[in-house]
Specification:
This protein is about 45% helix and about 10% strand. With about 250 residues, the protein is of the alpha+beta class. The protein folds into 2 domains: about 160 residues, 2-Layer Sandwich (Alpha-Beta Plaits); about 60 residues, no CATH class.
Length: about 250
């Protein structure tokens, strides 16, 4: 079947979501995160876009962006292509890094613009990465709180107050509001219960307890970890919790 045509935004503003292919980790260390931010900054002048928000998670990315000189598909090819070239060279790998084409939704009014802005900044909190949105270092929240570098903060802040200091305070409070916002979501398989996950680990590895996976040799252990993530869609956090294997080992397998 042919792909559905991407909906065009009358305002030029889009919420973008990209994820790693086969749940591939796209940021393994701080250098990777910083490199992607450098890439966003470098292509702002070339492609003529405005960036209003970002959140870089280990295996997916959210952007709130406004196109101008170049169409959306072209500027995303520039950004992704540049980062993937650098990433593959660093980790001595070949092939795709991002899954299929990026997902997008149009932003046509200020109300939904602010909803998406809050959704993006709450992404780490809803993923269980910290107890408050200020704890996560790889979202644009810090640019709104301090000095903007990559992000155009003034557009959003002016929607709150003409006084910049008061606008920042109102913005942060708005982003902390408990909500059920449902914006552009990652299409996930139904999450398995811990008992279902334990049954899978026991059956696949032929062990009595999930924790026995720790004692396997590195090659075998990594093979099973990849299988749990890619074929059975167990989350990294769930595998870590049930097997006792550290998050870093599970991520990098």
């Amino acid at each position: 079947m042919p792909r559905q045509a991407r909906k065009k935004s009358n305002s030029g503003i889009y919420h973008i979501m990209m994820r790693g292919i086969n749940r591939q980790i796209i940021f393994k260390d701080e250098v990777d995160y910083s490199k992607f931010l450098e890439t966003l900054e470098r292509y702002k002048e070339i492609s003529g876009y405005e960036l209003y928000a970002y959140c870089l998670m280990s295996n997916h990315i959210h952007l709130l962006i406004k196109v101008d000189i170049e169409p959306l598909e072209q500027l995303m090819r520039r950004i992704c292509g540049s980062y993937v070239y650098w990433y593959n060279n660093k980790y001595e790998r070949i092939g795709y890094l991002f899954q299929d084409r990026f997902k997008s939704e149009v932003i046509e009014n200020d109300q939904y613009f602010l909803t998406v802005l809050r959704y993006i900044h709450q992404n780490p909190l809803k993923a269980g990465l910290g107890n408050c949105i200020e704890e996560y270092p790889w979202s644009s929240l810090f640019e709104y709180m301090e000095r903007p570098k990559v992000v155009n903060c003034s557009y959003a802040l002016k929607l709150f107050n003409g006084d910049m200091k008061m606008a920042q305070e109102s913005f942060i409070q708005f982003c902390k509001i408990d909500n059920n916002d449902q914006c552009l979501e990652i299409e996930e398989k139904k999450r398995r219960s811990d008992q279902e996950a334990i049954n899978i680990i026991q059956k696949v590895c032929q062990v009595e307890k999930a924790s026995e996976l720790q004692r396997l040799d590195k090659v075998t252990k990594n093979k099973y970890l990849r299988e749990f993530k890619e074929e059975y869609h167990l989350s990294i956090r769930q595998i870590e919790r049930l097997t006792g294997i550290s998050r870093g080992v599970v991520q990098n397998a």
